[in-house]
Amino acid sequence: MNIEVKPRIKPPLDPDFLPASLWNRSYRAAVDATGNAQGLALALKRPSGSVSVFQTRVFPHTGEYVALNECYIERLLKFLLWQKGGYHVTVAGDPAIADYLRTVYSTTGARKFDYEFMGTKVYGHPMTFESMPFDPRLTSNESGSELGRHLDGCRIGFDLGGSDRKCSAVIDGEVVFTEEIVWDPYFETDPEYHFQGINDTLKRAAEKLPRVDAVGGSAAGVYVDNEVRVASLFRGVAPDDFERRVRRIFFDLQKLWDNIPFVVVNDGEVTALAASMSLEANGVLGISLGTSQAGGYVTPQGTITDWLNELAFVPIDYRPNAPVDEWSGDGGVGAQYFSQQAVARLLPSAGIDVPADMPFAERLSTTQALMAGGDDRARKIFETIGVYLGYAIAHYADFYDLQHALILGRVTSGEGGDIIIAKATEVLNAEFPELAKSIKLHQPDEKSKRHGQAVAAASLPSIV
Questions:
Q1: Confidence at residue 447, expressed as pLDDT on a 0 to 100 scale
Q2: CA–CA separation, 326 vs 378, rounded Å?
Q3: What are phi and psi of 336, to 5 degrees?
Q4: In whole angstroms, what is the distance from residue 415 CA to residue 434 CA?
Q5: What is the pTM of this model?
């Protein structure tokens, strides 16, 4: 048995793209058509005690249905792990499904990266699985908290990306200075490179302020109470050096800056905060297309959760030979579709030749320059990303209570950003008209696109 998926709109440069949103809908429709759907729930627990529960339905786990169930549930758990996080997974349903997931998410399984990341690296606990009978009464136990929105005083906000460091100087909510500094942190082995680079960014902003009352920052990765748990920015640093110099790097910087209020969080959370502040609305998913993909979420109540919202690792393409993320080793995940990596990947298909050693950031700049000159090959790259985005937003809507999506980041600068939004809107109208009516897509203005993250970061600390 196969799940038939026929997208109405195909990405111009990637016609084999298999949208997760359509596959999942077709799968659930096929399950319902059997008249024998089986209940299944996945509960993800975090050290704080919060638990996220996702209820769904699957085929009876026998015969030809087994392979389909395994595909659906493995991709579903992958999404939930990177959306919400968790080290202990309870599988309420057929115990054979729990056994399968326990094998895949293990030190020897296909999802070894996720198993190790979600276990000891992030949460300090081995990742474990528990099986129990299905219970429709299982519910989530989650909490939210306020984040940022403080603009009083003289503040510095920074955002650490894989190709640049952005900073802003803010006085009583008014931006007086913004700047980008190019750097290349991914494979830098010396922690001092990172420390001095971040401090240089702070000093540049401080020169534009009469004093510095607080510093707020964002970066890709997982940060708990200003402590670096796991972050791609520091992937080149050896484990011993990471423990010695990186894990508490922001505490060391705070000491250097006279112990003023200093808050650093995941860039996805600040993306969501920037979106909510810009739109003056809640129920917002912020999606940043930059060096990688960042995501964050503000609930309809205006709070931030303790979820991860690492959309870069969330699967959106279900084809077996989907492009593979070089860090996690998984195919079809967001980083390969919504980032400068995506642009670089699509260049050959567009017929645009660039030097093999050209950095991804320069490949993006080259593509954007061609776009500005009316090059149709460049246009097709942004149209392709836009089609990806339309189907991905429909997929996200299965997991988020979503009324607004703010699309930002370096990839969306210039005319290419308008094309991305237009194609995403076209997909939603054609495939998901009910979502097209309920979800509004937004772009910040050009200045906010490139610096909104750092400005929102400046609002993180409270000045007592």
A1: 60
A2: 24
A3: -85, 0
A4: 28
A5: 0.88
